[in-house]
Design a protein that fits this description.
The chain has about 130 residues and is mainly α. The protein has four helices and three strands.
């Protein structure tokens, strides 16, 4: 018995290129913005923040343990979870350590992590971090 089931996704749609591209790109752009750029409503964190905390947990950077170089954490996050620029990952880590940026800092930073006046944090090879006790 042969069935004449046609999958609607197998059909070819004849549409003008510019209108099809604009519709599909808009859907893609909006989904990307809501999934990556905007903080999640549940916890207020972006995916890069979650990846940082997960990597720090796996590196055993608990509050009772010692500090480790931020370069180690950033490299681990880039290599395993977040294949984007190192500076964006480090900036996210710095924000998690700043008491004026987060109500409850999740990262305990040692070294220059910037200040409220807008001075930038030191390079990640000069700073160390571990998780805070929540």
């Amino acid at each position: 018995m042969a069935t004449d089931f046609k999958d609607p996704f197998d059909s070819i749609v004849d549409a003008p290129f510019d209108s099809a591209l604009s519709e599909r790109y808009l859907v893609y752009a909006l989904s990307t913005i809501t999934a990556r750029s905007l903080p999640d409503v549940r916890d207020g964190m972006k995916p890069v923040h979650r990846r940082l905390l997960w990597a720090m947990r796996l590196l055993k950077l608990d509050p009772a343990q010692g500090y480790k170089k931020c370069a180690r954490v950033v490299g681990d996050v880039i290599g395993k979870y977040h294949p984007h620029g190192d500076q964006s990952v480090y900036d996210a880590m710095v924000r998690l350590a700043q008491s004026f940026a987060m109500r409850y800092p999740l990262v305990d930073g040692q070294g220059n992590f910037g200040n409220i006046d807008g001075d930038n944090a030191a390079a990640y090879r000069y700073t160390e971090a571990r998780l805070t006790q929540v």
